[in-house]
Amino acid sequence: MTRTSATPVTPATTTPATTTPATTTPATTTPAGRLTAAQGAAMYVGAVLGTGVIALPALAAQAAGPASLLAWLGLVVLSAPLAAAFAALGARHPDSGGVSTYARLAFGDRAAVVVGWCFYFAIPPSAAAAALFGGEYVAAAVGGGTGTATLTAAGLMAVVTVSNASGLRVTGRVQLGLAGLLVALLVVAVALSLPHADMANLRPFAPHGWTAVAPAAALLVWSFAGWEAITHLAADFRRPSRDLPRAAAAAVVVVGVLYLSVAFATVAVLGPAAGAARAPLGDLLALGLGGNARLLAAVAALLLTLGAMNAYWAGAAKLGAALGRDGALPGWLSRGSVAGEVPRRSLAVVAVLSFLALAVVYAAGTGIRPLVLMTNGSFVVVYAIGVAAAIRLLPRGRARAAALLALVAVALLVAASGVYLVWPLLVGGAALAYARFTRGEAAVPAGH
């Protein structure tokens, strides 16, 4: 990426993360990336599959009954063009700024700042919610209620912080192992529970009416989280133009098959009880294995949560460093924006804010739902700007056509977000205010 003169960049002498001139693309003058296509696919699977497959099958079944399967199918179909658009952008413009970079190239600095802030400040509440999903599985298996769930969530966040602080090479290897294990566990859960399926559980197919599919689909917005996350790591791939699209394609297939399999098993096996299941994966394993299989489900939930949080924290930390590099956040965050470096300062900010969100939820007793819906609102805004940028930046062809399809789908999600768009609007307003303030400071002569 070539920085334009309009970009709010700090002077080169004050940016410790890079010594390249302001007009040079960092990715072309920094050490080669180390992520492979297999590691990238694992990070995609972990980011997208994780918390969605833990909690959403039951929530969607509660909203629409067996007709929730249509919402899942629609989600999988729409994931393909969304993933293709972001992968094409990442391959064509590899930079740790991810969607923020694409927004700048397509629409200018203000759009980039808004995207960056929306994504960066959506990670702490989403991390707290995801960690609590895993924590609730542990609490369901061993008891202890909210206290056990919160303590487990704090432990998950600590592990992810240490994993990412140790460097991207470790992060990629850990993610690859976690993704393989979680896929195996899900396959076992579905295979063992399907013999207990009863097709009568699919009738009536739409007990709450066909219009209930829309609320079910709105709940599944959380499952979109992940297709844009890995674009922040595009510069860390060995060969972004080849490896990133391959990683995205492999992830869409794996995630689609697993989503639909788990959703079908939840409805066909658990029947009317599916909507009330707090730990649907545990219920499936218990039917297949008997005994105390919920302990195995708790292990699976922990692995899934670690996978999602690992990828998201890596991407968010890189994004924060890139925003600091470009002046959209304080410059001291910029260390680690170069490919191959670890953005420990930005990672520390993400970790502190995530622990704060967890503490607020525990103290207020509000539950997870508001955090999930606030996060969804932020991600929908990021997706909308991201795919719009793809339409402007990508040449005519399959990738641009995919972006057009994705834009239509995301526009529907924006309309469905309703009141929860207030959070990203507040964050976007704060981003623009910060950009204006720092620009005004830069215009004041020294000594005044």
From TrEMBL:
An example Gene Ontology CC term for this record: plasma membrane
Keywords: Cell membrane, Membrane, Transmembrane, Transmembrane helix
Gene3D superfamilies reported in the protein's UniProt record: Amino acid/polyamine transporter I
GO MF annotation: an example: transmembrane transporter activity
TM regions (residue ranges): 41-63, 69-90, 111-133, 139-162, 174-194, 214-235, 247-275, 295-315, 347-365, 371-394, 401-423
Region of interest: Disordered: 1-31
InterPro entries: AA/rel_permease1 (IPR002293), APC_superfamily (IPR050367)
Transmembrane is among the record's keywords: yes
Keyword Cell membrane in record: yes
Annotated compartments: Cell membrane
Main location: membrane
Domain of life: Bacteria
UniProt topology in membrane: Multi-pass membrane protein
UniProt protein name: Amino acid exporter, AAE family
Organism (species): Microbispora rosea
